[in-house]
């Protein structure tokens, strides 16, 4: 008998400590166990196994049993580091390593019943025609799933069973996501530039390499080679992408090269699929984990490399506790396994590029597209002139002409607009009333397909009012264009064009994105209209025209990152054009043609943009020259929320008073979106020179306990709504 130290799976600071139990000698750190806990039964994680305890053995209880889904031992130390870094209970950190369905215990292996012949068919009387057919079928085909037989032979199955001629057996089957994503392995010879980049990455002693390569420079092939080398050394790999369902070609490439060694982890899989993919990694029958940010926790025992593709992407930050940054977790894992991290992007984040220039990361460049294909030419169109010319449509004359030509040549085009729905809002022409959500402080978007108004924050749908609720007026106007409207107007302009649309509304089913993108890849569509989903790493060789309908839309958010985001978006969307033999064009429509961010993007001048941006950040003391921290209070009623925030603010003020020199800003206020999903939102906003008071801030927030108000901390949040 041994003694094990257990963290129970309850995410509460009161029980965030070690409890000791007696266990069998076979129990190991990382295992999940069920234990008696007070009067209840709880599951928990074994953190350590030892022979002695400071407690008397007779006082300790025994564990009930070991559960399926044990974690690699690495997770024990890693979870401790995560809890220390993000100030959260250990149970929360440990949960990150386990798919939710495993914890619930509701999903298990999938078993099906297999039938085979086990006696002499000669015993079947001649008149039992169906039974004879069934026996013949089994003789010919061998083991067959029971449901299939029942469907074909109906009652004959039971009849033969009663004669004792059939044997039934339970067999486990794998639920394999994206089965159709089978691809052949096209293995190009590396170009000189790729060879050089690969060698540089292999040679460096630095833990992190930043692969800064323009769109279409062949970064993917470099990742694949690095993963391959890792497998050859007998080690596994993690390949992170912003959203796997958005990159079917990537999946096909991976499956083509590595076959069943690839396991896919992402939230749109069914619970059963996720369970099986996780188990395949855990048992080592798959060695490469591909997925969005949570795949950084993949249960791989020996890691050889971690790849983070499109490292600038906002989805790499988790927006619920613990609010981890994927790169930070990757660094912890890489340190443990002594392996490399390769981050790649055509538009690295300002933070990462700064680390690379400072020599903290290795900087590896790919300055040209594959086979020296030219970058698409970017034409900036001044939409103010279009308005003056009396063109009210979302398409400039120039874009219209280019689309016409593109279609005539039989090429494909992508149109990007960062707003879904038909129009941004429904406005009363008489009094100016704009329809608002009852649960959130935001206006509603009109959706023509369902003829309703939708809230993009909480998803609530509303009927379109017949009369204005404010003034009774009957004249409504639609303000602002969305993807549905673009699709409709496009169809009117080009009646014979086949148009596909990709946004949250068209892609809501499980493999919705995948289906639309695959159809476009098969050239079943001429024009793809969509939101930022169309910008994500796609490689469609026949796209020669990209239209950015409203490049200004993201420029004026009250967020220090809005310039950076606009630059990334324009570069990434534009980068989808002209990736194969035919050169491409990008048409960038804007009401601010002289804007410097758009100018840098049009000239593919990332470094110009970066120098300019970092100078602004420094002069304004924005990140990375400071840290933006906000403590949120989110509650049921306005009064309770304000009261809770007042209390928290009081405690934070003590920290502020003691450390004034470390604060650039400290204040409390209503959050910019004051209510979401019926919850009131208030905040204490801070800008800190360094992270030295973070611990105290987290302590205040985690010790604050209110019945109806949730308090939490965000660091450099992706959005400041
Ligand atoms: P990036 O990720 O840098 O935007 P990709 O990896 O998608 O670029 O590569 C762009 C295109 O070039 C793809 O179609 C890819 O198949 C092709 N490609 C990559 N490497 C080579 C090579 N060595 N020879 C020929 N084509 C290549
Ligand atoms: Zn709402």
Report the strand count: 31
Mean pLDDT: 90
DSSP helical segment count: 21
Q: Kindly estimate the percentage of residues that lie in beta strands according to DSSP.
A: 25-35%
Give the secondary structure arrangement, pairings included.
Elements: E1 2-8, E2 19-23, E3 32-37, E4 40-50, E5 61-62, E6 65-67, H1 74-86, H2 90-95, H3 100-104, E7 110-117, H4 129-141, E8 144-145, H5 146-153, H6 156-162, E9 166-173, H7 192-203, E10 208-213, H8 219-232, E11 236-240, H9 248-258, E12 262-265, H10 271-282, E13 288-291, E14 303-309, H11 326-337, E15 340-345, H12 350-357, E16 362-366, E17 377-382, H13 383-388, H14 397-409, E18 412-416, E19 423-428, E20 445-447, E21 452-454, E22 461-463, E23 476-481, H15 483-493, E24 499-502, H16 512-521, E25 527-530, E26 543-548, H17 562-574, E27 585-590, H18 596-602, H19 606-620, E28 627-635, H20 638-658, E29 663-676, E30 679-688, H21 694-703, E31 709-715
Parallel strand pairs: 2-5, 10-15, 10-16, 11-13, 11-14, 12-13, 14-15, 17-27, 18-25, 18-26, 24-25, 26-27
Antiparallel strand pairs: 1-2, 1-4, 3-4, 3-6, 7-8, 7-9, 19-23, 20-21, 21-22, 28-30, 28-31, 29-30
Helix pairs in contact: 1-11, 4-6, 7-8, 17-18, 20-21
Can you describe what's shown?
The chain folds into 5 domains: 2-97, GIY-YIG endonuclease (3-Layer(aba) Sandwich); 110-173, Arc Repressor Mutant, subunit A (Orthogonal Bundle), CATH 1.10.10; 192-371, P-loop containing nucleotide triphosphate hydrolases (Rossmann fold); 373-423 and 480-617, Rossmann fold (3-Layer(aba) Sandwich); 627-715, 2-Layer Sandwich (Alpha-Beta Plaits). α4 (129-141) packs across α6. Strands 12-13-11-14-15-10-16 form a 7-stranded parallel β-sheet, sandwiched between helices. A 6-stranded mixed β-sheet has the order 5-2-1-4-3-6. A 6-stranded parallel β-sheet has the order 17-27-26-18-25-24, with helices on both faces. The mean pLDDT is 90. 31% of the residues lie in helices and 25% in strands. With 721 residues, it is α/β, with parallel strands linked by helices. The relative contact order is 0.08. The protein is built from 21 helices and 31 strands. The site of zinc ion has 7 residues, from loops.
């Amino acid at each position: 008998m041994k003694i094990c130290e257990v963290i129970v799976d309850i995410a509460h600071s009161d029980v965030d400590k070690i409890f000791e139990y007696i266990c069998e000698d076979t129990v190991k750190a990382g295992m999940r166990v069920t234990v008696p806990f007070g009067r209840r039964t709880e599951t928990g994680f074994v953190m350590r196994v030892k022979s002695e305890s400071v407690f008397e053995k007779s006082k300790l209880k025994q564990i009930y049993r070991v559960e399926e889904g044990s974690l690699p031992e690495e997770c024990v130390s890693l979870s401790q580091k995560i809890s220390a870094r993000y100030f959260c209970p250990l149970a929360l950190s440990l949960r990150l390593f386990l798919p939710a369905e495993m914890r619930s215990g509701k999903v298990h292996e999938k078993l099906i019943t297999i039938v085979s012949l086990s006696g002499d068919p000669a015993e079947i009387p001649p008149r039992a025609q169906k039974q004879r057919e069934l026996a013949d079928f089994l003789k010919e085909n061998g083991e067959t799933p029971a449901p299939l037989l029942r469907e074909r032979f109906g009652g004959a199955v039971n009849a033969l069973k009663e004669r004792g001629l059939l044997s039934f057996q339970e067999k486990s089957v794998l639920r394999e996501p994206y089965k159709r994503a089978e691809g052949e392995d096209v293995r190009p010879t590396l170009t000189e530039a790729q060879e050089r980049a690969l060698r540089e990455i292999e040679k460096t002693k630095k833990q992190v390499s930043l692969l800064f390569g323009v769109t279409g420079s062949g970064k993917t092939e470099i990742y694949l080679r690095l993963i391959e080398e890792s497998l050859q050394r007998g080690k596994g790999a993690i390949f992170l992408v912003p959203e796997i369902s958005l990159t079917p070609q990537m999946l096909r490439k991976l499956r083509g090269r590595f076959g069943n060694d690839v396991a896919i982890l992402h939230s749109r899989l069914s619970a059963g699929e996720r369970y099986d993919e996780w188990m395949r990694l855990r048992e080592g029958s798959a060695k490469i984990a591909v997925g969005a940010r949570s795949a950084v926790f993949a249960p791989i025992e020996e890691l050889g490399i971690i790849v983070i593709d499109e490292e600038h992407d906002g989805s790499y930050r988790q927006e619920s506790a613990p609010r981890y940054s994927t790169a930070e977790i990757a660094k912890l894992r890489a340190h443990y396994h002594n392996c490399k991290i390769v981050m790649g992007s055509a538009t690295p984040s300002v933070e990462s590029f700064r680390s690379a220039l400072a020599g903290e990361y290795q900087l590896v460049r790919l300055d040209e597209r594959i086979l020296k294909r030219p970058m698409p030419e970017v034409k900036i169109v001044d939409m103010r002139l279009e308005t003056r010319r009396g063109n009210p449509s979302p398409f400039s004359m120039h874009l219209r002409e280019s689309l016409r030509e593109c279609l005539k040549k039989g090429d494909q085009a992508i149109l990007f607009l960062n707003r879904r729905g038909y129009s941004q809002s429904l406005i009363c022409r008489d009094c100016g009333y704009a329809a608002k959500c009852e649960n959130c402080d935001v206006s509603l978007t009109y959706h023509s397909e369902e003829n309703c108004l939708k809230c993009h924050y909480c998803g609530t749908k509303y009927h379109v009012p017949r009369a204005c609720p404010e003034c009774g007026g009957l004249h409504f106007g639609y303000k602002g264009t969305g993807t549905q409207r673009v699709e409709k107007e496009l169809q009117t302009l080009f009646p014979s064009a086949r148009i596909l649309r990709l946004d949250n509304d068209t892609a809501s089913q499980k493999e919705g994105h995948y289906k639309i993108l695959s159809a476009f890849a098969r050239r079943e569509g001429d024009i793809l209209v969509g939101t930022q989903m169309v910008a994500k790493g796609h490689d469609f060789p026949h796209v020669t025209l990209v239209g950015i309908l409203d490049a200004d839309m993201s420029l004026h958010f009250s967020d220090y990152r809005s310039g950076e985001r606009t630059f990334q978006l324009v570069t990434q969307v534009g980068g989808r054009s002209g990736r194969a033999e035919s050169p491409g064009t990008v048409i960038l429509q804007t009401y601010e043609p002289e804007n410097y961010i758009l100018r840098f993007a049009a000239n593919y001048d990332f470094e110009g943009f970066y120098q300019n941006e970092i100078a602004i950040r420094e002069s304004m003391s924005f990140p990375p020259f400071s840290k933006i921290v906000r403590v949120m209070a989110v509650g049921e009623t306005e009064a309770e929320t304000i009261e809770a925030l007042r209390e928290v603010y009081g405690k934070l003020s003590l920290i502020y008073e003691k450390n004034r020199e470390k604060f650039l800003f400290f204040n409390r206020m209503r959050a910019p979106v004051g209510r979401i999903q019926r919850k009131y939102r208030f905040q204490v906003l801070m800008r800190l020179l360094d992270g030295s008071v973070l611990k105290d801030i987290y302590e205040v927030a985690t010790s604050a306990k209110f019945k109806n108000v949730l308090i939490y901390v965000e660091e450099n949040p992706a959005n400041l709504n």
